[in-house]
Design a protein that fits this description.
- This is U32 family peptidase.
- InterPro entries: Peptidase_U32, RNA/ubiquinone_mod_enzymes.
- Helices cover 33% and strands 14% of the residues.
- With 346 residues, the chain is α/β, with parallel strands linked by helices.
- It folds into two domains: 2-210 and 262-345, TIM Barrel, CATH 3.20.20; 213-255, no CATH class.
- The strands form two sheets. It has an eight-stranded parallel β-barrel, surrounded by five helices. A two-stranded antiparallel ribbon has the order 9-10.
Length: 346
């Protein structure tokens, strides 16, 4: 499995590649778009200027393109908005064509209508289906095969065993999907919301809704693998929610920090390291390390940790052996208990 890391600044590309990233992804919002449409009509749902979250000048893309040619590690550009206005599609197509002229061929797109528009306009860029699209099944993957999708990024909340079902079904039903690449979230920024149904903004003008402290757990009246989210303030004593011991041990009851940029524990804002064995068995080809806006030093540590985890995985014969060795070596400061994939769902 290869590592794809979130890039917030062109200055960090070389550091991430030398740390072990096989590719990067980043946002690009031209100033002309920002001035014309502002924050609400987002290009990639990351309208942030106060810190390094995305590129904002074409000259930065030109510098990054030169680095990509030198290091031969690709960069995907993200267009993660769930929808666009009709008049915006030609503008986005023009932006993509301009980027393709300096060798950016790979794009992460969430809006199916934009994908269809690009194909109708005969724009031959490589497209990864964003994890913001929502739940994925084999029939849906077959539909997007007609749009020449090269990679499917599974949503954050999809279980590895469900990913395996999709990959296996796609390979059986369509020869064109045998070489499909699959990507899963593996580290950082586990969100309590489903991206496909989230209309909150990530911008300078207001705090992110996903940064609001919350506590997750398994409800008494719910199935064992169902996670409930309660946004009310907890006093740590009596509560209408009861949690199983499994949820307490595996990250089901965790209070999100107001800021995880300086998280001292590996994967404190979201960790999928224990699931790497199952993700590999499911057919995942790429692991996403989310990190646009994170401190570059923390991202370098995350990339190195993930790379080492994959080395341990390659040397392990089964899941138990891998998890034991990985935890002994990488969880020196303790487990974050904020699991992307609970053991019961692997």
């Amino acid at each position: 499995m290869e590592l794809t890391a979130g890039l917030g600044s062109v200055d960090d590309y070389i550091r991430y590649i030398e740390a072990g990233a096989d590719e990067c992804f980043c946002g690009y919002i031209p100033y002309a778009w920002d001035r014309k449409y502002g924050t609400v009509l987002s290009l990639n749902r990351r309208e942030v200027r106060c810190c390094s979250v995305q590129l904002g000048a074409f000259s930065e893309l030109e510098i990054l393109a030169a680095m990509v040619r030198a290091y031969q590690k690709p960069v995907q550009l993200t267009f993660n908005s769930l929808y666009y206005l009709p008049q915006q599609y030609p503008e986005i197509a023009e932006i993509i064509q301009k980027c393709m002229k300096i060798d950016f061929e790979d794009y992460i797109i969430a809006d199916p209508a934009l994908i269809l528009y690009l194909r109708q306009q005969k724009i031959g860029c490589r497209i990864s289906l964003s994890g913001e699209v929502g739940e994925i099944n084999s029939a849906m993957a077959g539909l997007f095969e007609q749009m020449e999708i090269s990679r499917i990024i599974f949503p954050r909340k999809m279980r590895p065993k469900d990913m395996a079902v999709v990959a296996q079904a796609c390979a059986k039903r369509s020869p064109g999907l045998e070489n499909m690449k699959y990507e899963a979230f593996a580290l950082n920024e586990l969100c309590q919301f489903s991206g496909a149904f989230c209309n909150s903004l990530h911008c300078d003008e207001m705090g992110y809704l996903c940064r609001v402290p919350y506590r997750a757990g398994v409800g008494k009246s719910q199935r064992k693998d169902s996670i409930l989210i309660d946004h009310q303030e907890w006093d740590g004593t009596a509560s209408s929610r009861e949690y199983t011991s499994e949820a307490r041990q595996c990250g089901g009851t965790w209070d999100s920090p107001e800021s995880d940029f300086d998280a001292p524990i590996l994967g404190e804002s979201g960790c999928g390291l224990c699931a790497l064995y199952d993700l590999g068995q499911a057919g995942i080809t790429h692991l996403k390390i989310v990190g646009r806006g994170n401190h570059p030093d923390r991202m370098v540590e995350d990339i190195r940790a993930m790379k080492r985890a994959l080395e341990i995985l390659d040397a392990s014969k089964d899941r138990e052996t891998y998890q034991k060795r990985m935890k002994q070596e990488l969880f020196l400061s303790g487990c974050s208990k904020n699991c992307y994939y609970l053991p019961a769902n692997l």
